[in-house]
């Protein structure tokens, strides 16, 4: 999975695991729907206590990054990373607003492209 934990770091190990998985999701190296290692398996791989990895998974689930499907295991949430989720919400709000204003969809796309090109 590519996660490393630095035992000398001031950052707690569960947080290193949490941010490692979150960053992999946001970078696209862990795609939506990808199955994650079991808590026990990842703990063994990283040399951590099972409870440490379990806490990271619980927080990732609470953040909407992963979802647990009972005995089937844990998976990257279908909607992907939190930043992607926020972008989807913003896009939906924009689409609703331009529709309400009666703006042509092609023109709305041109406006969005122009806004993205010029910060």
From TrEMBL:
Keyword Transcription: yes
Domain HTH gntR-type: 11-79
PROSITE patterns linked: HTH_GNTR
UniProtKB keywords: DNA-binding, Transcription, Transcription regulation
One MF term in the entry's GO annotations: DNA binding
Name recorded for this polypeptide: GntR family transcriptional regulator
Superkingdom of this protein's organism: Bacteria
SUPFAM superfamilies: Winged helix' DNA-binding domain (SSF46785)
InterPro entries membership: Tscrpt_reg_HTH_GntR, WH-like_DNA-bd_sf, WH_DNA-bd_sf
């Amino acid at each position: 999975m590519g996660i490393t934990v630095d035992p000398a770091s001031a950052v707690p190990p569960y947080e290193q695991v949490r941010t490692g998985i979150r960053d992999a999701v946001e970078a696209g190296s862990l795609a939506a729907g990808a199955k994650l290692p079991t808590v026990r398996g990842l703990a063994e791989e990283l040399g951590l206590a099972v409870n440490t990895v379990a806490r990271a998974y619980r927080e990732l689930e609470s953040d909407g990054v992963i979802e647990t499907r009972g005995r089937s295991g844990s998976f990257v949430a279908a909607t992907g990373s939190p930043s992607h989720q926020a972008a989807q919400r913003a896009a939906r709000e924009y689409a609703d607003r331009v529709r309400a204003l009666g703006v042509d969809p092609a023109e709305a796309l041109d406006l969005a492209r122009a806004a993205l090109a010029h910060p």
